[in-house]
Amino acid sequence: MRSHFIPASAGTKSVRSSLISGAAIACAVTGATALLPATAPAQETAYDNASAYASWTAGSSGGYGFGAWSFNGTDSGGSQALSSAGAIGSAWTLSTHPTGGGLSDVGRSITGGGGLQVGQIFETVIQNPTSYHYFGGFDILFLNATDNNGAGNNSAAIRAQDFHSGYYNPGDLWSVQDGGSGGTTSLSAANTGASGVRVDLFLASATTYSLTMTALNGSGSSTINGTYSGPINYVNYRLYDGVASTGPNDVADNFGISYMEIVPEPSSIALMTAGLAGLAFLRRRK
């Protein structure tokens, strides 16, 4: 698995055969099955990385489990390009050019497994701007949709966003909006823009989620637990009204996306692995 997560069973010794009973194996298999959705695989169901792209335009597609990129919603002040200037390395990069104007809008469908499923984690690494215009901001939308949300359309199952203090968000802190109350994280644009941030969205049930943001400069992480109304089959990144960018390598003013992937929740993988190992043991005993 390509994710940062390590299954609980990694590096542990096998349970001795004298301690394994048929009932214990059955329980392990049943437990693993109960925690995994019927469509969940034992590895990532979707993955794409900006480093695999030679160019990035509307309709570009790479990796697997995701649809083609859409730039719909981008206005005349927004643009998209590849860059490797940021701390996160190769990145799909969003820019805006007139100061205090412009919207760069990109997104794509989640096709692997028919969308993000219960028991799965959507993971992405981004690096946001550290320069702010008064109206500037950026967000990540998790939608039930077929295309990007346009300017002013903030409807989403789950929305992680950060806008400049004095307009939407006093304190310049990332916050999350959802089907209930959402919440505000402890991470600012300065924290997450310095070296990037990893965003992990875990669907705990058909109505509850956990979203964790981990600043890659070591300044900490923050988790919001909440409720949502699914399904989620589309991810949308937007950069609003930023400071005028000088080009793709203007890290202070651009928004970069390194990669995106979908994996099963780690404990579910560990349980399923244990269950399959037990079945293999039973076959050897026969």
Structural description of this entry:
This protein has 286 residues and is of the alpha+beta class. It has two domains: 17-36 and 269-285, no CATH class; 46-265, Jelly Rolls. Helix content is 14%, strand content 33%. The protein contains three helices and 14 strands. Strands 1, 2, 3, 5, 10, 11, 12 and 14 form an eight-stranded antiparallel beta sheet that branches. Strands 4-13-6-7-8-9 form a six-stranded antiparallel beta sheet. A hairpin with a 4-residue loop joins strand 10 and strand 11. Residues 1-42 and 268-285 have low confidence and may be disordered.
SSE topology sketch:
Elements (H helix, E strand, L loop, with lengths): L21 H14 L10 E4 L28 E6 L7 E6 L6 E7 L10 E8 L9 E7 L14 E6 L9 E5 L5 E6 H7 L1 E7 L4 E8 L4 E8 L6 E7 L14 E10 L1 H20 L1
Antiparallel strand pairs: 1-14, 2-3, 3-14, 4-13, 5-10, 5-14, 6-7, 6-13, 7-8, 8-9, 10-11, 11-12
